[in-house]
Amino acid sequence: MLKVEGDTHNLYQQEFLNSTTQRSIPPHILKVKKGVSLILLRNIDPRYDLCNETRLLCRGFFKNMLDVEILTESYAGKRACLPIIKLKTNMNS
Questions:
Q1: What is the per-residue pLDDT for 86?
Q2: 10-residue stretch averages of pLDDT, the chain, 93 residues long
Q3: What DSSP letter does each residue of the chain carry, written as one string?
Q4: Which intervals hold domain DNA helicase Pif1-like 2B (predicted)?
């Protein structure tokens, strides 16, 4: 690896960054397959029952979205697209 003085962008190697874990965030890579059940862990849109603990079924993928089917409550059977959400954590956790 080429080192440039004052370059903090490449301070740590990618393998090291990918191996670090914290209790407050999921693993570095989250693998989701078509047809698997998911549970929403964030309130996205309560009007359409896209809130914490809603059960979903993965129907497909787009570049930055998941195509899901709602399995619970009054919106069962309805489809929704969930965006990829970047996770942030406090340095203290």
A1: 72
A2: 60 73 68 91 89 94 92 91 77 54
A3: ----TT--TTSS-HHHHHH---TTS--SS----TT-EEE--S-SBGGGTBSTT-EEEEEEE-SSEEEEEE-SGGGTT-EEEEE-------TT-
A4: 15-58
Q: Is the pTM of this model over 0.70?
A: no
Which residue type sits at 19?
S
Q: How many residues does the chain have?
A: 93
The one-letter amino acid code at 64 reads: N
Beta carbons of 34 and 60 less than 8 angstroms apart: yes
Residue-level pLDDT at 14: 73
Q: What are the extents of the domains in the chain? A: 30-83
Q: Is 42 left (phi over 0), alpha (psi -120 to 50) or beta?
A: beta
